Amino acid sequence: MSTALRFACTGCGKCCSGHHVPLTLDETRHWAARGGQVIVLIEGFISDGPGMPLEQREHVLRRSLAVPCGAGEVRVSVTFAAFNPGRCLHLDAADRCSIYEDRPLVCRIYPMEINPHIPLRPENKDCPSEAWEQGPELIHGQIAVDPHLRALIEASRQADRDDIAAKVAVCQALGMTTSALKGNGFTAWLPDMGALAAALDASAQVADQAWQLHIEDQALSDTLAALGVQFTAQPSARYAFIGF
Q: What is the C-alpha separation between 192 and 189, in angstroms, rounded?
């Protein structure tokens, strides 16, 4: 693939359908106030152990928080996302965003990636081929050409880091303390939005509360047991385990 890519939105609306859009804490509050549902995705890893992608070490450490887990600890990353199994509730009949001027950061930087270790590949996006055949140069060597876009991307990544402690505190307040192992899957939660909004407004603090990992792979279970980490393979009515 060329190191340079052009891009121009065609207004097809495909990126606004069937995608859970990551939200900052403030965006989560706004989404809840507008009547939207939030999905919470949790993954964890052992520092320099199972689940730690060494090539992404700095990135994953900065957007995670250490929590107690059995006799050890795990670092958890929490994503609050707009729950959009179908069309986004803000996509109008003409496939236009009805909150365009106030849309989330991740929507503003699309089609760029939040994770700096994931290269932008047109084949991984829903945009039609003509979107990549017109418009201004978007990236060169995987770096955004437009300085304003670069600033938005960094703002999105920084919010990921700044919000992690508050997100963990909200999860603890709502009893969402089972994570999956990074690289093996996510735990996906659909919290009651009234309870989520109340926890966000309460500005809960991180507590010394025990977490556990959801593990269904026997080899991983054996490895984690040797590390003293608490885990379970039992299905739960409160969350879904999304394995890879």
A: 10
